[in-house]
Amino acid sequence: MNPPTPSSVPVPVSAPAPDASRPRDFPIRRGCPFSAPEEYTRLRALEPVARVTLPTGREAWVVSRYEDVRELLADPRISADIRRPNFPALGEGEQEIGARLRPFIRTDAPEHTRYRRMLLPEFTVRRIRAMRPAVQTIVDGLLDSMLAAEAPVDFVPLYANAVSTSVICELLGIPAENLEFFRDVTRISGSRHSSAEQVAEALGGLFALISDLVAQRQEQPGDDLLSRLVVGHLRTGDITLPELLSTVGITINAGRETSTNMIALSTLLLLQRPDLMEELRADPSLMPAAVNEFLRVMSIADSIPLRVAAQDIEISGTVIPADDGVIALLAGADHDPEQFPDPGRIDFRRPDNHHVAFGYGVHQCIGQHLARLELEVALETLIRRVPTLRLAVPDEEIDFKHDSATFGIERLPVTW
Ligand code: HEM
Asked: Can you tell me which residues the record assigns to a coiled coil (predicted)?
């Protein structure tokens, strides 16, 4: 496996375009799983606002420098409305179903603000901090189950996915009995190859489950997020049932796959870098900084911030015309050497590590405190309780998810 991209990657002066009549294809595959695609180095240096062709055949712009990405995502002239004709979704299924269901991540103010205000009190630092004992109990229980299984096991479903799904279910107050079900919903709805029918069917199953739970909460509200949404917003008429289903559905989808991928990738990285593992064992108080650095280098949600220019917008000397699609490359920004010296180096003591792995501006990840908590507890517990953990296959046999909304690992066979 390749080492993380060093900062000294040579910048090719003129990369030949495979077909000069059409902009280069996007997304661009990663070489190293713990870094941005190497091509981003060239884009930042030579084409910071570049034209690309998406898998849907549409064209869009990609922006790759740190300052430009932040400027773009904070610009009030940018729209996240998936109904706009040139919205740069990476799959047809996402585009068509997104335009029909309109998850709030793909809406603009004032609609977006209304949903965001409803959810924000549930994700404050204080509320998430109070979840730490519950998250620790979940993680310990799942680790007990993994260790009780016969090694080797696949770490992704048994630990990474089980932790992230169980935690999100705990937050929402929904039973985490069927982990496979949640995994399938996210896999199908997040794949660039899924058709609109496949996405609709997967999300339909999720909405049916949430709908049953809403009916129960109508009868008997409890002390959980779903009950608070039902009592405080559905009953009062602030929100309709389809809006509630879409909001809870996107929260599950957005929070589950991302955290699963980060837990699995961070574990793989630590198994391949005993020096980093040792550093964390010697000083566990470094864990929050380590998680922050993993988030930066991996930037797994690289092309999640999809937008359309609502007016002409000039970035680094290039005008993105009104109505064109544009993607803010988070991994491009987080490997910009102007902002992060020697960006490929993993440094738990990196000063001012203000990355954009959770996005920037009004759509910045609402679940980021929860994601950090999950990652910290999942990794700290694993390192402490399973010091003999190791890969059960050679590095080359590990499959990565190159075609999903977020980058991750398909299977990670481990033993101990
Ligand atoms: C490591 C884990 C995670 C990463 C890397 C991540 C990344 C992101 C990014 C980049 C965005 C911004 C998208 C945009 O600008 O269009 C976002 C938004 C969002 N995330 Fe996360 N996320 C993570 C975990 C979570 C968790 C655990 C939850 C919920 C429990 C969550 C819920 C959401 C929601 C609801 C939005 C939409 C916010 C809005 O549009 O206002 N995420 N996430």
From this structure: none
